[in-house]
Write a structure and sequence with these properties.
The structure is a single chain. The protein is mostly helical. It has a domain at 44-77. It has three helices and no strands.
Amino acid sequence: MSLAITDQPSAAIPVRTRKPKATQATSRPRTPADEKPRKVSFYLSPESIRRLGVVASMEDSDKSRVLEQVIRTSPLLKRWVVSDRAKPADPGTDEVSSD
């Protein structure tokens, strides 16, 4: 028994090409009101953690809210401001009267 091999012209084998990646939709810029709280980690002394816990208990709050309030009202942190110079100025606040 013998096997005969014949050379038949093979049909054109389709070449697989990769599809171009779909472009992702750009998201709109986030405003502070849209942002959700994010979990972060800090190293604090046991005394600082204890004090945060006491204040949170006394104000019927949690440590995250107490710390956020401290950050928001801290004079050291209020000193620094990040401004967006690309935004147009409010025309009503350009001039300050001395009256």
